[in-house]
Amino acid sequence: MIRNSLSIGLVIVVGAALVGCNAAEKKKLSREEAGQAFTDGTAALESRDFTTAVEKLTLALEGGWLGYTTANAYLQRAIANAALGNYDAALADLDVAEQGEGETAETLVARTYVFEKQGKQREAKQAWSKARQWGRRVKKIDY
């Protein structure tokens, strides 16, 4: 009986310590830190460092200070996630980006990219056709 109580107590203490560690790791970013994370994420995407792009853009989004660049951060993270093969996460980010601004040429081009990476040619063609309606100058993503 005493042995079982000690085991249960140990599990509770270890579990509480783990929860505490996770909470401490998610510190709130300042406006400047969130802005820098966004800038770093954008640079990482441009240099094709997709893992770092996802990490930095996630930090920026969790910071909550992005304002008008929030939709762009979701868009960029979607592209990076698609490049890494995380298609569900990419499509979810595009859905969030569109909640704020609706479908845009940029989100449609990004959807085209995700669908092409998934091998969904029909959906890619539909998204690309809609993107082209915004203007002939739209270009496909080539990561």
Q: What is the CA-based Rg, rounded?
A: 20 Å
Q: Given the C-alpha coordinates, what overall shape results? A: globular
Q: How many beta-strand runs? A: 0
Q: If classified by CATH, what would the architecture be?
A: Alpha Horseshoe
Order of helices and strands: HHHHHHH
Question: Termini, distance in Å?
Answer: 61 Å
Low-confidence stretches: 1-24
CATH C-level name:
Mainly Alpha
Q: Major beta sheet, specifics?
A: none
Estimate nothing, just give the exact number of structural domains: 1
The CATH topology assignment is Serine Threonine Protein Phosphatase 5, Tetratricopeptide repeat
Helix content: over 70%
Strand content: under 5%
Secondary structure tally, helices = 7
What's the CATH H-level superfamily name?
Answer: Tetratricopeptide repeat domain
- Overall pLDDT: 83
* Class by alpha and beta content: mainly alpha
Please tell me about this protein's structure.
The chain has 143 residues and is mainly alpha-helical. It has one domain: Serine Threonine Protein Phosphatase 5, Tetratricopeptide repeat. It is 77% helix and 0% strand. It has helices at residues 2-25, 31-46, 50-63, 70-83, 87-101, 105-118, 121-133. α2 runs parallel beside α4 (70-83). The longest helix has 24 residues, at 2-25. Residues 1-24 have low confidence and may be disordered.
